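Hi, here's the filled form for the chain we discussed.

Project: internal
Contact: R.S.
Residues: 164
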Amino acid sequence: MATADLVDRYGEELASCDTQLRQLGGRRTFAGRAVTIACHQDNGLVKSTLAEPGEGRVLVVDGGGSLHTALMGDLIAGSAVANGWAGVVINGAVRDSAALAGLDLGVKALGTNPRKSAKAGAGRRDVVVEFGGARFVPGALVVADDDGVVILPAHVAPTDIVLS
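And the returned structure, exactly as it came back:
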């Protein structure tokens, strides 16, 4: 089900992210339960999280909107694919965009920057993150496509939606 159809169906029950994220991954439509990270110009926690079994989940990263350094590149994204993640939504930058486009992974981000980030692992995982007027709660059902990113109400099960 397209995000526009989900908005039509659930209306004010769901949240829609207003941030105009770019579609950068090879999987243009993706959905899954949210795992969240808040970090700033440090991708250590992103890397370690995407190295875990994804089980079809979506990693939502609030990088504070920074475009100064990339929070994910092709190697980390390749790890996400190998570990079964459905997608990554980043309020920040990525790099290796040509390679990301060829991976079977949903990737939405503000933009790109070839500059590497710090790797100290600074940040917080499994916390509520907010950007674009949307509140991403760990475990919430996130759906993304070419039109945007929505967060469905808790009572909606993944089996209630069919991705187009």
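Let me know if anything looks off before we file it.
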